[in-house]
Q: What sequence folds into this?
């Protein structure tokens, strides 16, 4: 069982214990931002994000870093997402904080607490309803709807509502031809669906979907991040008993 309040107290103690090493403060700000985000305490989360923005040089388009001649994938992802706000007619992201929470594997942490997960699900379903009732859907509507369904499926899976979660994931996959920008959603959803089948004990089906995510898609956002997760999942499946046909 995760204990966000205890973790938060430790990070706050670390900040107050010294003032010489600001880099340590920045690491704590980052973690505190997420601990507040997990509980949807957005003002407090914004406070630490704002401190990082003012004291660091992270994820700013003009200051992108390159390592071994390559851009950092997370920076590229953040910059690409931010362009919706810089367009001539800006289109806000649908649930950006939760999208980033997923990319940083935060749903794995939140999923250990049913109360946090239920709270996230309420917010996600509000976004789902808003998209459904949008009288003037933008060109991003299929992408946004698919993102919402994937995150909704994750919450439902973590709450043990596996059939409903499966329906959400399959809805994302059925929208593949309509997704215009966020192509990462399909391989990530295949991976999550594979984990769901693993949880149900169908290891053959789980392996099939995770392998499909690995081999059938390339050149999408956060590809290397997903491949790390895929490698871990397939390694664990190798030691699993034979699943149901």
A:
């Amino acid at each position: 069982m995760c204990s966000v309040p205890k973790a938060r107290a430790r990070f706050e103690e670390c900040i107050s214990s010294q003032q010489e090493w600001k880099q340590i403060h920045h690491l704590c700000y980052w973690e505190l931002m997420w601990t507040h985000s997990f509980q949807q305490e957005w003002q407090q989360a914004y406070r630490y994000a704002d401190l990082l923005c003012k004291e660091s040089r992270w994820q700013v388009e003009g200051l992108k870093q390159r390592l071994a001649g390559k851009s950092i994938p997370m920076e590229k992802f953040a910059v690409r997402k931010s362009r919706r706000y810089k367009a001539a007619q800006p289109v806000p992201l649908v649930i950006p904080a939760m999208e980033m929470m997923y990319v940083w594997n935060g749903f794995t942490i939140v999923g250990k607490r049913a109360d946090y997960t239920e709270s996230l699900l309420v917010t996600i379903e509000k976004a789902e309803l808003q998209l459904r009732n949008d009288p003037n859907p933008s060109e991003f509507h299929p992408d946004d709807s698919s993102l919402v369904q994937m995150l909704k499926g994750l919450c439902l899976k973590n709450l043990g509502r596996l059939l409903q979660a499966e329906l959400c994931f399959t809805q994302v996959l059925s929208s593949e031809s309509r997704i215009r920008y966020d192509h990462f959603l399909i391989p990530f959803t295949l991976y999550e669906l594979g984990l769901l089948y693993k949880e149900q004990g169908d290891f053959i089906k789980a392996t099939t979907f995770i392998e499909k995510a690995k081999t059938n898609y390339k050149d999408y956002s956060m590809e290397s991040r997903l491949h790390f997760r895929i490698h871990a999942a397939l390694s664990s499946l190798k030691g699993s008993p034979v699943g149901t046909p």
User: Anything to note?
Assistant: Strands lie at 66-67, 70-71. The radius of gyration is 19 Å. The chain has two domains: 1-57, 71-238.
